[in-house]
Amino acid sequence: MSIKLGLIGTGPRGRVYANAIKEINEGLSEPRAEWLAICDIDADKRARFCETHELSGTQIEDAGDLLAMPDLDAVVICTPDHTHRDLAVMCYEHGKHVLVEKPVAVDPQGARDVCRAALDADKVLVSGFVLRFDPMAVKLREMVRGGAVGRLLGGTVHEAVGYHHGSTYFRRWHRLRKYSGDLLLHKGCHTLDLFNWITGVFPQRVAAFGGTEIFLPRSDAAMQCRDCSVEDCIYRVTPPEEEPAERSGSSGAGALPIDACVYNVDKDSTDTVFLSAEFDERVRLSYTMTLSHQHDQRRFNFIGTEGEIIAVMGRSEYTMELRHIPEEEPEIIPIERPEGGGHKLADVDLMSDFLDRIERGDDPEQGIRYAYHSGSVAFAAIDSIESGSIVQIEEL
Asked: For the segment 33-53, what is each residue's pLDDT rounded down to a tens digit?
């Protein structure tokens, strides 16, 4: 029987999931899943979305009306981060399975509320962690859990965000914690979730240092590039003659002009973080996030009693090697680079996994724990930076 889905939010990620369902159903005699209803508060945007994706589901403005539909099985939430908590909890109160875009919520209490609601409802919770399906992540999980480096002692991870990519967050709503929870959460939760998922261990306490180190206010810069006399700024943007009606990831609350100065805009997000975390089973993590690199990369080093794995996941470099003691020569692990890039690599895999869990009637508890801890290190790190203390992570 086809799974009946509701979509809340028709922005960029909503478009991704509409295309994913279309691809999943391609060639099937009966659709595996179908959109029962499309919900968005903007009627014109909602109508354009349904026309573009050829969707015949009911168009709805209010999420409560969507959840009242008796045939609805599951909901996909693609709204801005700060709305995730209330919508997800509401879905669970109506007994629905939920795929919510990451992060689950923008503060620790919100994350606990969502995960506890999922446990109470005994329904599936999946968040948008597409990197779990990256071939390198899959291989790392297999090797680390399979004992390739002996007993795991810990790892180092560097979230190297390309300078241009990093600057775009400070022209969008992500620069304000009330909307994103902080860039460490919004951006870093992908990688922090990967560490949990690869190793199978969960964090207990965190110590962190960081803040806004790159995009500090500049008295010689204007509020917008069009008015600025700093010609050699690497973040300078030439604005179009007319602002586009829709800007991917930039519209809505807190949106700024395309050429807003990344130095002088109001912001409270970090752009540089160094943290140490202790996990169960005596595993430790050293993690950094910085926004001053040529290209986006995630650099992993998993260290064990019998060697280490060094891996770089990025568009410009995609390599992995095993250095096993007492052997001197590293073993190059062949990993085929996936086509495309970014989130587009595994959207179909993520949606298929969500449908699999619903169809199998999985015990949702383990998935809920992973969803909770995808953000717990980031929350604790922000607390540690502000308090100057080691922060214990509260379990569900």
From this structure: 999 999 999 999 999 999 999
Q: Which residue, among 394, 388, 364, has the nearest Cα to 376 in the 3D structure? A: 394
What is the distance between the alpha carbons of residues 255 and 266, in angstroms, rounded to a whole number? Answer: 11
Q: What is the mean pLDDT of residues 92-103?
A: 98
pLDDT beyond 70 at 157: yes
3-state secondary structure of 369: helix
CATH of the domain at 77: 3.40.50.720
Of 129, 163, 194, the one marking the end of a domain is 129
Angstrom distance (rounded) from CA 161 to CA 292: 7
Q: What domain range is 76 assigned to?
A: 3-129
Give start and end residues of each alpha helix (H) in 53-199.
63-67, 84-93, 108-121, 135-145, 163-168, 177-180, 183-186, 189-199
**Both tokens of residue 217?**
């206010």
**235 neighbors 262 (Cβ within 8 angstroms):** yes
The domain that holds 370 is classified in CATH as: 3.30.360.10
